[in-house]
């Protein structure tokens, strides 16, 4: 297998860098991030996110901020004592909001994140059901149907795929991940990026 790699430089605030590629509702899209530091320090202050819908008829976008489904940022340590920046990004279908900011309010427990200590970035992309389209289309990302047979795959207010599903698979948040050989992770809703130190 080829050595497919993706890296990110958290000190480069001059451009949006690739975070994750995925597909929902038949639309292929990517999310990019621009990382900003506090003045004269290596402490992360905020991240600008931008989503670009490439192909498909349905626009994906960021959810409006609320207590239940919001972007979350935290750090963890894997089995090799490598520090990982973990970003959970919930999206919604049929949404034109393709730009948003991750601020200190999104940092779990107001954690102060020193990027000099970060070895990798792990991104989890979730999907939230758009309650405004329930009566207009059949939402196949959350339900299945075949004629008269219909079955809900997830609860209406649940993030899909559930973060619990992600954590129960082979890649727990704090497990060892080979960041040198995973461009977008092992699943379409995760991404692993190796942090580089040079600009």
Present the secondary structure layout:
Blueprint: E1 7-8, E2 17-24, E3 27-37, E4 44-55, E5 60-62, E6 72-77, E7 83-93, E8 99-102, E9 120-128, E10 143-146, E11 149-152, H1 163-168, E12 190-195
Parallel strand pairs: 1-12, 7-9
Antiparallel strand pairs: 2-3, 3-4, 4-8, 5-7, 6-7, 9-12, 10-11
Can you put this structure into words, describing what you see?
With 199 residues, the protein is mainly β. Helix content is 3%, strand content 40%. The protein is built from 1 helix and 12 strands; from the N terminus they run βββββββββββαβ. Strand 6 (72-77) and strand 7 form a beta hairpin. The longest helix is centred in the last third of the chain and has 6 residues, at 163-168. Mean pLDDT is 76; it is low at 163-183.
Features:
six-stranded mixed β-sheet, 199 residues, elongated, 1 helix, mainly beta, 3% helix, 40% strand
Brief summary:
With 199 residues, the chain is mostly beta strands.
Domain tally: 1
Mean pLDDT across the residues is 76
Helix percentage:
under 10%
Overall SS class:
mainly beta
Shape, per Cα inertia axes: elongated
Order of helices and strands: EEEEEEEEEEEHE
Low-confidence stretches: 163-183
- Beta percentage is 35-45%
Number of helices: 1
Distance between the termini: 29 Å
Largest sheet geometry: 6 strands, mixed
Global Rg: 17 Å
């Amino acid at each position: 297998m080829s050595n497919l790699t993706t890296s990110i430089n958290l000190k480069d605030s001059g451009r949006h860098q690739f975070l994750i590629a995925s597909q929902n509702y038949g639309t292929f899209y990517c999310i990019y991030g621009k990382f900003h530091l506090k003045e004269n320090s290596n402490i992360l202050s905020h991240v600008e996110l931008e989503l670009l819908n490439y192909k498909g008829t349905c626009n994906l976008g960021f959810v409006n901020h609320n207590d239940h489904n919001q972007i979350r940022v935290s750090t963890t340590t894997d089995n090799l004592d490598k520090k990982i920046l973990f970003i959970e990004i919930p999206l919604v279908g049929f949404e034109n909001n393709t730009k948003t900011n991750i601020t200190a309010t999104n940092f779990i427990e107001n954690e102060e994140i020193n990027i000099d200590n970060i070895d990798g970035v792990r991104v989890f992309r979730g999907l939230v059901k758009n309650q405004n389209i329930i009566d207009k289309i059949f939402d196949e990302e959350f339900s299945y149907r075949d004629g008269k047979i219909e079955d809900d795959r997830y609860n209406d207010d649940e993030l899909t795929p559930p973060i619990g599903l992600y954590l129960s698979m082979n890649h727990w948040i704090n497990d060892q991940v080979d960041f040198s050989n995973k461009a977008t992770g092992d699943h379409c809703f995760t991404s692993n990026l190796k942090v580089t130190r040079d600009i």
